[in-house]
Design a protein that fits this description.
9 helices, Arc Repressor Mutant, subunit A, Rna Polymerase Sigma Factor, Chain: A, globular
């Protein structure tokens, strides 16, 4: 059983929903706590070899994982390959998931981030790129005048100007220091809170806030040079 790339059709989705608890199916209602409890059940079913449960897990988290990979690589091809590798790693590590240490979303995001770090370490010489976990002096004061990045990936109904802006933002984001970039992505695009980001990055919440502030300021400077603005 391997991670699923394609989207499930209507009949498949209905079949999956029939075998999964309420709240685990995408779009189902329920409190965050209840949904997390449902995911614990889904993980248990995955460990028992339930292919429908695994398909639902992949379908629910694929967008988040792909978005992280794409934002860091700026390549849909590389992002999809990394996505496949990450879900293989997630499947092989399901036994290590401990709901007492955080939600499934945070756990998957942490694995994604760690895989991206490993990927950049391996390819750093070839790509002449900075490592995602390059050092950064956090002792200075936070910079002001930053920008909160909104998710501007172009959709099917966006007009040409919006698509051009999305491309400009992606290009600008690629110029932000890797360590700051990941903090901005996790907060503004992945919508994790400070505590969750601190768990993913394994740094104090104060460091998270500083990196986000610095990252937004750096992004604002890049966009300013290009004559673009992000609200």
């Amino acid at each position: 059983m391997v991670p699923v790339r394609r989207s499930m059709g209507g009949h498949e989705a209905q079949a999956a929903g029939a075998h999964l608890p309420v709240g685990a199916v995408i779009g189902a209602s329920g409190t965050r706590g209840q949904v997390e409890q449902d995911w614990i059940v889904v993980v248990g079913r995955c460990l028992q070899g339930d292919s429908l449960a695994w398909t639902e897990l992949v379908r629910a988290h694929h967008g988040r994982v792909y978005s992280l990979c794409y934002r860091f690589t700026n390549s849909s091809h590389d992002a999809e390959d990394l996505c496949q590798d990450i879900f293989l790693k997630v499947y092989g590590s399901l036994k290590s998931f401990d709901p007492g240490r955080g939600s499934l979303t945070v756990w998957v995001t942490t694995m994604t981030r760690n895989h991206l770090v490993d990927h950049y370490r391996r390819s750093r010489l070839e790509r002449a790129s900075d490592s995602l976990d390059a050092g950064w002096d956090e002792t200075g004061e936070e910079q002001r005048g930053g920008v909160r990045l909104e998710d501007t990936r172009p959709g099917p109904h966006e007009n040409v100007l919006q698509r051009e802006l999305a491309q400009e933002v992606q290009a600008a984001l690629a110029q932000v220091s890797p360590e700051l970039r990941e903090a901005v992505i996790l907060r503004d695009l992945q919508d994790l809170d400070y505590k969750e980001i601190a768990t993913v990055l394994r740094v104090p919440e104060g460091t998270v806030k500083s990196r986000i502030s610095r990252g937004r300021a750096e992004l604002a400077r890049v966009l300013s040079r290009k004559g673009k603005q992000v609200s």
